[in-house]
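Proteins fold reproducibly. Look at a sample protein:
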Amino acid sequence: MDPAELLKRCSQGDELAWEVLVRQHQGRICAIAYGYLGDQDEAFDLAQEIFVRVYERLSTCEEPEKFLSWMTRIARNACLDHLRRMKARPPRQDIPADEMHNLAGGSSNPEQDWVRGKRKKLVFQAMQELSEINREIILLKDIQELPLDEIAGILKLPVGTVKSRSSRARIELAKVISSWISGPDGPYSAGAAS
């Protein structure tokens, strides 16, 4: 179904169209939330709240061809709101991140799925060590694969700044992962238990 038609039907209250829209985008929204929060259960809970916000604001999406960027902006804002609320609460006990839920069907090879899951876990854990802006840029550009101009609009930064920060973010992420793999005390060092 044409995205513009799908959005039109959703805003008219078509429950089946809304279900289709949620199914199409739930993996992306959960991944965005997980990227910001670093906790799978909280990410799934927040994803539900994000879809409520999207539904309530459907009439404000004036350009259906930019729906993905519009929805990502809502998801980002919901994640930032949630993080601000969490700062007001006492910190939770540190718990290692769960395996990243396989949102994308994957292959039928369990070994490849396991390796892919371990890599995702490593990247998402390492992202928690990045500065906030670098974590956002990695999440939006490399994981969500949004175009630079849309990322610039979401973050309210010039495109050139997004490009240069993207390079720095990748370098910072690579350094974190490298130190974990090669360092004697990192969570992924040879001596660490998996």
Remarks:
- The domain at 1-90 is CATH 1.10.1740.10 (Rna Polymerase Sigma Factor; Chain: A).
- Confidence is low (pLDDT under 50) at residues 93-106.
- The two ends are 44 Å apart (CA to CA).
- The first helix runs from residue 3 to 11.
